[in-house]
TrEMBL record:
Protein name per Swiss-Prot or TrEMBL: Mandelate racemase/muconate lactonizing enzyme family protein
Organism in which the protein naturally occurs: Natronomonas aquatica
InterPro entries the record matches: DgoD-like, Enolase-like_C_sf, Enolase-like_N, Enolase_C-like, Mandelate_racemase_C, Mandelate_racemase_N_dom
Domain called Mandelate racemase/muconate lactonizing enzyme C-terminal: residue spans: 149-250
Alphabetized Pfam families for the sequence: MR_MLE_C (PF13378), MR_MLE_N (PF02746)
Domain of life: Archaea
Signal peptide as annotated in the record: none
SMART domains the record matches: MR_MLE
Keyword vocabulary terms for this entry: Lyase
SUPFAM superfamilies associated with the record: Enolase C-terminal domain-like (SSF51604), Enolase N-terminal domain-like (SSF54826)
A molecular-function term among this protein's GO annotations: lyase activity
Length: 378
């Protein structure tokens, strides 16, 4: 089936409140979606990581003329040739978000064109549902550390009341507040005490620390039964390897890495205990699936990073269906109307379980009226 049109669709929505991780305050959500339509009218949707700017121009002006007329079921060949084409043009880097958005849209359109779910096309499913962990506990704009402790503890108890048995919290306060690693450790202790010992707890520093500080924090949370410490240092593979030699808490990372070859270095240099590729920034469903296979061959669990719209969530679930071992779904619990409302039949949790759909393509239909209401160019 030939591809007829490729369109970049910019979405943006301001949020009612602001919240922060170690790197930035978040007051809006913005996505560059990809819409691919075949000659018979089959439509596939993809999503790029990052701002609309850059993604949109590359898709419309650079990728679309090349992709038009190609077969929608040549997904992996198109992925590889697009990577090479972009590398040749930009030399020192590949705009991987563009590759990701195109790849997800192609898989969705391919699946819909043959009436099969993407997980079936990828080789079949290990599971029909997955355990979801609640991502949240972002920083709020407060004056007193005790106020933040109280807000984060209340939020954690709320996720547990909603049925979640695993939580991930943010640490790395020093970029925004007059507080540092000791308060970060204290904040983890606050959540552990709020939810008790039966809940799995993870922490995410969004690469806030240098190696020495990351060691200090890893040591400080050692008695809090933290399942993994995510992005402790800047995403340089050597930094991870050096840190990992000296800490006992398992180290996780991957949302800032892309493609099989980079994760191959991560694994061969023993840089992470868990790898977390993101379908919208690691090279789409194709690359995320390859990374998961590579990780499995090294006896390392792949736990995809998910922090996007309804499309990223649906695409991640299709990959998770195919990952060996015990993957979990990162289930973003922060306010995001584009995640909650974009699909006509939204993917939701039942306690700590999310069903993985076995419907054509990514398993969702986009609500076109809602899409129009989010359009940044409308
Ligand atoms: Mg993270």
């Amino acid at each position: 089936m030939e591809i007829e049109t490729i369109e970049a669709v910019p979405l943006r929505r301001e949020l009612d409140g602001t919240f922060a991780n170690a790197q930035k305050w978040i007051d809006s959500r913005e996505y560059c979606l990809v819409r691919i339509e075949t000659v018979d009218g089959t439509v596939g949707w993809g999503e790029c990581w990052g701002p609309v700017a850059g993604n949109r121009e590359l898709i419309e002006e650079y990728v679309a003329p090349w992709l038009t007329g190609q077969r929608v079921d040549d997904v992996e060949r198109i992925h590889d040739e697009l990577v090479f084409k972009l590398r040749s043009s930009y030399h020192s880097f590949v705009p991987v978000s563009v590759v990701s958005g195109i790849d997800i849209a192609l898989w969705d359109a391919y699946g819909k064109s043959v009436d099969r779910s993407v997980s079936r096309l990828l080789g079949g499913r290990y599971r029909e549902e997955v355990r979801a962990y609640a991502t949240g506990h972002f920083f709020r704009d407060v004056e007193e550390f005790e106020t933040l402790q109280s807000i984060i503890a209340d939020e954690a108890r709320g996720h547990v009341d909603a049925g979640f048995t695993a939580l991930k919290q943010k640490i790395g306060l020093s970029g925004h507040f007059p507080w540092g690693p000791e308060e970060d450790i204290e904040l983890v202790r606050t959540v552990r005490e709020a939810v008790g010992d039966e809940i799995d707890l993870m922490v995410d520093a969004n690469h806030a620390y240098d190696i020495a500080t990351a060691k200090r924090v890893a040591c400080g949370i050692e008695d809090l039964d933290v399942r993994f410490f995510e992005e402790p240092v800047r995403p340089e593979i050597a930094y991870y390897s050096r840190l990992k030699e000296d800490v006992t808490v398992p180290i996780a990372g991957g949302e800032s890495w892309a493609f099989q070859h980079e994760f191959n270095r991560v694994l061969s240099e023993n840089a992470a205990d868990y790898v977390q590729p993101d379908v919208t920034s690691a090279g789409g469903i194709t690359s995320t699936e390859r990374v998961a296979t590579l990780a499995d061959s090294e006896n390392v669990q792949c736990l995809p990073h998910v922090f996007g719209s309804a499309i990223a969530l649906a695409a991640s679930l299709q990959v998770i269906a195919t990952i060996p071992g015990e993957p979990m779904l990162e289930f973003d619990r922060t306010p995001n109307p584009i995640r909650e409302d974009l699909a006509a039949d939204p993917i939701t949790n039942d306690g700590d379980v999310v069903r993985i759909r076995d419907r054509p393509g990514l398993g969702i239909e986009i609500d076109e009226a809602v899409l129009e209401s989010f359009r940044a160019d409308g």
